[in-house]
Specification:
homodimer; alpha+beta; 19 strands; 33% helix
């Protein structure tokens, strides 16, 4: 099997060919009306990299590697800035060693060594962080990145309770492959699905397949086991509890600063066989949002209830660029869902929508297939969604500056929020790039508000991309915070979101979290600087 | 208005008449085949009570009282043991002073005084704790109970997002009365509804009206504001977030050890106008549980999906004592629910149930009434449920020993769990009381398991009730823990559940929580001994 690309999304075999890169340059040159040069291919051999500052002790030598490709691959996550730095061979602060534990005992041994020596230990799942969540901190004696990819097994399936005990290092597709023979699925599809892990989803409060009701991975966690320098932290398997603050909810979102999640009991799903989906178009973005609100406030709990603004609807759904679209999807492993779809369509129509009659699809007889999750409009959307990040590989280094940002906001603030954020970003794109594109969709919706997801891009000045990106990111984050949103609905905080997270989270809570970290990680070796300062 | 009873459930006007007490004694004498004496009426005037150990400073004198009735009323919660101690006039460790703040500034002033002087500060909502959650600790310099009953207003309603900002001290009925003119309801009905508060629900992770999906108050919290000795801890209003561990989820279940919750933004509901309900009988308790599992795993999300075992079905639902019953209820403010009820009935039938055709009730045309929440089978059940705690007032002091305990467990363990817990309690009742009664219902159900609720009672030996109760409580808690349950699904931990909670919660988590408390309450004045030791 091909290795992971040390700079791009996916495997080395997913890196673009020369021809693809040339074609991408031609497309973007047309788009921006300026000739964009195809940049040189990355070449790791020519990269100078700091020698490891320490050696593995003999007892751990079999678990630790100083292989250059591994160290480069573990230097960054996959944000715009991360990929561009890697593409350009900028690795001033790589991990000194990468650990590849095969068992919890291995994790414990590596963690003890780091704790004893004062080396930074960075828990690492799929490395898909877009917020600097796995990037080593500036000052350190030594850095060990703990990659859990060898701990990738479904250990037990409980078909009665519909739950499974799963190792934290499993990637999305491998997890689904192991659940499938049992007739189950986790149905958690973040856009990073292929290259992110259960453990990563848990510590970043990943957002998944369900647009309503169970949106975050949080809702599917039955119990978690985490190793800390002070010992294991494991909750009981329970369907619900009221015994003190939830121990699991303190791990969820902890981003590796409290310990290394090694496994979890997860609530799994019957594979859906009943389905219903439809798309509804709207003359305005505002009307589409009101329809979405009506559906979610009626608590019909669709699996999909996403709206795309006219720009995104034009790009991804074949619309004319002046209409917004609402994509509705219901699914069940147990009961027909046609009547729920009908109720949702009725509400969308009342809100001014036009049902695309050709799109209405109801499967109310169980389908005999092991691959039912991939059928229909929802499945198509899912596949193109999952393939999205690969597109960036082809345009890498052409000089474009772009990113996405996501948040959530209560409905009462929504229309103003959107107007203000768009105004701020339009101004910033003009100021920084002389123009650019900006679009929005909802990824998840709640009875009390949506989770909007914005995408922007413009053309950078050669060599100025990082500074330009920083200015755009700041404009976006400032606007989100000033208008009452969260700095992240499901991308996590990491290092990149810290300035705004520090405004958002209650100061007294930060003191409590800092003290809690100190109690379980007294030497402060775990992912220092992420979420809080020591 | 009548004052609160210092020993019974509700107001002084809810205390039984002499005639009611005599009739209750006759009924129980018949039941146990032994003549039970009507005990003397409680008389607070004759109770010796320790003088307050400190005086209110002049600046706080208007907020603090040393009134004997207030001090007695705030000495205990409302567990079996609490009520009996109060009934018998046993008040060895009352709060020295009771604070009645009218504003957050008042709370802050009282808290600062306690913090500065090292007095214990006990946040107090409705005082309905059945786990020793508001009982003063043994050793202290002085005790101030902070009763938030004067902070009882709905401050803002956001009809667009369906959310409201509400002060923590509001009792259930007052909250509903204030939301009703806006067309909304919180729809959170713990059995303590009349005499418990929003703040109490939040810090104890109260279980409410919804049997599935949004079971705990946790799910309806949009943001919380809590005063700690180190300052306010307030989250942003957000429909969802992934920015670090949830600050709200650390307050939820904190039982007053981190601060005093003063207000919260709560997700509210449209008043239901569409309804569907039905009851289904089963030849066995086991079959009823399987039906319940099928309905909840199909994610139909009924508001009510409660099963009663044959004993409870005989007592509360008029069945013959050999059949179990499943009560199904669906409701919506926005869309008809008849088809969901039909799907649930179909699943229950498949699982061996007999639909009680006369019970099937579907209201699929909006009902013109402001009081729709009180109609139908669900409403009837709710009213008798809410009245339940008053019954105990009449039998108080007759010598019976009884209690309830509740938990949750995954489905794979369920039938064994129930068998083992019943065996342990039957043995314990025989050993301690020479026999007794034991029954079970489900209060909430999840796709991965039920939340069973057990009720037991037997006859005590005069003067031996406390020791006998302790033995029965220990037998119940030991059995729950040994068989994999939680020590509490929604009754909280307090002081009474500590021995078992200490087994249940991860040790490392307890260290983190202790450190977090120390950070926000450095002098350890807030509810010491609840959840964790200093």
């Amino acid at each position: 099997m091909s290795r992971r690309s040390y700079w791009g999304w996916g495997l080395e075999s997913d890196e673009p060919t020369e021809e693809q890169r040339i074609q991408a340059a031609e497309r973007q040159s047309l788009r921006f009306g300026r000739t964009l040069e195809v940049p040189p291919r990355p070449d790791l051999d020519s990269v100078e990299m700091r020698a490891p500052r320490m050696r593995a002790p003999a007892t751990l030598a079999h678990l630790l590697t100083d292989d250059k490709h591994e160290r480069a691959s573990h230097s960054y996550g996959k944000s715009f800035r991360d990929k561009l730095r890697a593409f350009r061979g900028q690795f001033p602060n790589p991990p000194d060693l990468v650990a590849l534990p095969k068992s919890e005992d291995d994790v414990r041994a590596v963690l003890e060594w780091c704790d004893g020596q004062g080396y930074v230990a960075i828990p690492y799942g799929g490395g898909s962080s877009v917020v600097g969540g796995v990037e080593p901190p500036g000052a350190s004696k030594g850095i060990v990145t703990l990659d859990l990819r060898e701990m990738n097994q479904v250990m037990e399936v409980d078909p009665i309770s519909r739950a499974a005990r799963i190792q934290a290092g499993v990637l999305g597709p491998d997890l689904e492959t192991q659940l499938r023979p049992h007739g189950f699925t986790l149905r958690h599809y973040p856009q990073s699905f292929e290259w992110s892990t259960l453990g990563g989803w848990i510590v970043t409060r990943s957002g998944g397949h369900y647009a309503t009701n169970g949106t975050h991975i949080d809702d599917f966690v039955e119990s978690v086991r985490m190793l800390t320098p002070r010992g294991p932290w494991e909750s009981r398997r329970l369907p619900g509890s009221g015994a003190g603050p939830s121990p699991d909810r303190m791990i969820l979102g902890s981003e590796g600063i409290l310990g290394v999640v090694t496994e979890a009991w997860m609530r799994i799903q019957g594979r859906p066989v009943f389905r219903g989906s439809a798309s509804v178009t709207f003359a305005t973005w505002e009307a589409a949002a009101l329809a979405c609100k009506a559906v979610v406030q009626a608590k019909l709990w669709p699996a999909n209830a996403r709206i795309l603004d006219p720009v995104e609807a034009g790009n991804s759904a074949g619309l004319d660029g002046t209409h917004a679209i609402l994509i509705l999807g219901f699914e069940s492993a147990d009961v027909p869902v046609g009547h729920l779809l009908q109720q949702a369509m009725d509400l969308a129509k009342e809100a001014g929508g036009t049902i695309d009659e050709a799109s209405v699809r109801v499967v109310d007889n169980p389908v005999e297939t092991t691959d039912a999750g991939r059928q229909g409009a929802v499945g198509e959307w899912r596949n193109s969604f999952i393939r999205g990040p690969y597109n960036g590989n082809m345009t890498m280094g052409l000089g474009m500056v772009g990113d996405t940002f996501e948040t959530s906001i209560t409905w009462d603030r929504w229309p103003d929020f959107d107007r203000n954020v768009r105004a701020a970003m339009t101004e910033a794109l003009q100021r920084v790039c002389g123009g650019g594109t900006l679009s929005c969709r909802f990824t998840h919706v709640y009875p009390d508000g949506p989770a909007p997801y914005y995408t922007f891009s413009g053309l950078g000045k050669p060599g100025g991309e990082f500074e330009m990106w920083a200015q755009l990111k700041k404009a976006a984050s400032d606007a989100v915070m000033a208008n009452g949103g969260t700095i992240t609905h499901h991308h996590a905080v990491g290092r990149d979101h810290r300035p705004w997270y520090d405004i958002q989270r209650p100061d007294v809570f930060a003191e409590a979290l800092r003290a809690a970290k100190k109690a379980v990680d007294p030497n402060g070796v775990l992912n220092p600087g992420v979420l809080i300062d020591p």
